[in-house]
Q: What sequence folds into this?
């Protein structure tokens, strides 16, 4: 469950031991409910995706005016893992990228 009226996420892509992309994500609660997903990718303007579907095992955000992606989905699979998916069109061609995620324990060592 969200804590403090928000959910936060971060993503980093590495190639050859170098970070080549990163992104900060926020889902925030406002007076009229959950606002949607706010994405702040490296080197690009912040984009807002409105929540268009919310169910027991899935949430879908959409921004048809965004370059790519236009749709972001998070789905809880039967084995308890989370599948993130981005979808949209790139130069008129449909494109989909999946991001399978697994919950891991957060370990802090001094």
A:
């Amino acid at each position: 469950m969200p804590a403090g009226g928000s959910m936060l996420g971060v993503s980093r892509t590495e190639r050859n031991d170098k970070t080549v992309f990163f992104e900060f994500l926020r889902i925030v609660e406002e007076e009229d409910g959950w606002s949607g997903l706010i994405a702040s990718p490296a080197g690009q303007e912040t984009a807002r995706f409105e929540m268009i579907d919310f169910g027991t095992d899935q949430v879908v955000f959409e921004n048809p005016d965004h370059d790519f992606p236009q749709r972001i989905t998070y789905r809880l699979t039967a084995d308890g893992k989370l599948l993130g998916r981005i979808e949209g069109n790139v130069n008129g061609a449909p494109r989909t990228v999946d991001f399978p995620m697994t919950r891991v324990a957060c370990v802090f060592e001094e």
The chain has no helices and eight strands.
